[in-house]
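User: Okay, second chain of the day. Same drill as before: sequence in, structure tokens out.
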Amino acid sequence: MRNKNNGRRDQLLREKAINPFVRGLAPELLWSAEDADWIVLGFERIEARDTDFGRGSPDVPVLVELVNRIGELELPEVAREWPETRWDWWADRGAPELFRGDTFLHVDINPGNLLIGADRNWVVDWSWPGCGAAFIDPAMLVLQLIGGLHTPAEAESWVAGCPAWMAADPKAIDAFVVATARMNRHRALRRPDEPWLDAMAVAAESWATHRELTVYPD
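Assistant: Same drill. Structure tokens below.
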């Protein structure tokens, strides 16, 4: 990335800092370099493929397993400095407190970040890790499964295999779904040239409908 004070530089620095704590799931960071113009991270090369989040995919049990393994990681001390707040602005009054917690989170759950290899499976792109409520990563999996054309009920049935999801307060999940729907719709409207954003907004809105939630009050 360009070595400028912006979000992408910060993401690389965060990934560099967290790599020693996630090597059970992620490729090892072998070297890093930076000068006035660039910052570069060099990781070990792995052989793996993107996962398939689609309905009927045989990869879905692997996705659940990987999300559970993320949830079992201890929270590194450095990650306590990164409380998860990106949904706060979109949430109803008082709801952000439901997103707090001391669970180590990956957050960026998608087909390109959960990978299947011949001998082991991987979780890559740790540029947005943080700490928060344990249900957040399973909830992100639900959203992506709905985006993969599972029904909301089917997607939620899959994450019933995640202890963090089963232990969550349903009110916290509801608040998260509402905030997610609002955030994704806003992003889709701002960037109409990126259809995947609209797909995520539609997925979140259908999830809210399934849970009988009001996303856009009159």
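The chain has a mean pLDDT of 96.

User: Thanks, on to the next one.
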